[in-house]
Amino acid sequence: MSLHIAVDNKAPVAKTVLMPGDPLRAQFIAENFLTDPVRYTEIRNMYGYTGTYKGVPVSVQGSGMGMPSMGIYSWELFAQHDVENIIRVGTAGGFTSDVGVGEIVVSLAASTDSNYQHIFDLNGSYSPSCSYKLLQKMMEAGEETGIRFTAGNTFSSDCFYEVDDDWWKKWASLGVLAVEMEAAALYMNAAYHHKNALAIMTISDHFVTGEATTAEEREKTFTSMMELALETAVKL
């Protein structure tokens, strides 16, 4: 049993886990997509559930906001709960008019301003990237379901609020699609533990157009992303 995830023996964590940042999104996915979901943890209200999707065991675990929180929960899942695959299902802010609000972005690699990599004692800048195995399965799922997504570089930020309103434009100039706050830590942990990770995000607000969704919309309406992740999970 890990420090932050106390698992009910009646509902062990599955080999594949969907990880939204919001624990209420974890609850929404479990209650609306999984068969016979059982909540295995509620420590700090960071809910985790195990059920089945199309007969395949799948868990859904909240990660919280930011790389320190994602770092804790994904590390414990990989290292102490024998999880093989984590698919982040989150939200992101769009940097380009080519990807609009409500559309899906898949992170091939996660640029970051975080110092999270210091725990691995590296003498340089590490470029965390997704698992090709999971990406390949998601591409297959996208073809079968007709759910479209854009794949590319994303930015994992340590800060939600910036004092420079134009800070994002330099990242956008290098083709970065969107900003979120968790993927880089997830990818580093997966690499270190020789596991698989993929971050898929729905654009919830946009730096170019100024559009934004509500908290309730982010929790309950990004169902195409959830379905795409689950269809990927059953292929593993």
Report the biggest beta sheet as strand number plus sense, adding barrel if it closes.
5 strands, mixed, barrel
Rounded to the nearest angstrom, the radius of gyration is: 17 Å
Provide the low-confidence segments as ranges: none
* Derived structural class: alpha/beta
Number of strands: 9
Number of helices: 7
Instruction: Give, in order, the helices and strands.
Output: EHEEEHEEHEHEHEHH
Give the strand order, joined by hyphens, for the main sheet: 5-8-7-6-9
Terminal CA distance reads: 25 Å
Description:
- By secondary structure, this protein is an alpha/beta fold.
- 31% of the residues lie in helices and 27% in strands.
- The chain contains 7 helices and 9 strands, in the order βαβββαββαβαβαβαα.
- It has helices at residues 23-33, 67-80, 132-145, 168-173, 183-192, 215-220, 223-233, and strands at residues 16-19, 35-41, 48-53, 56-61, 85-94, 104-112, 150-156, 178-180, 196-206.
- The protein has a 5-stranded mixed beta barrel with strand order 5-8-7-6-9, surrounded by 4 helices.
- Helix 2 (67-80) packs parallel to helix 5 (183-192).
- The protein starts with 15 loop residues before the first strand and ends with a helix.
- The mean pLDDT is 96.
Write a short abstract of this structure.
This protein is α/β, with parallel strands linked by helices and 236 residues long.
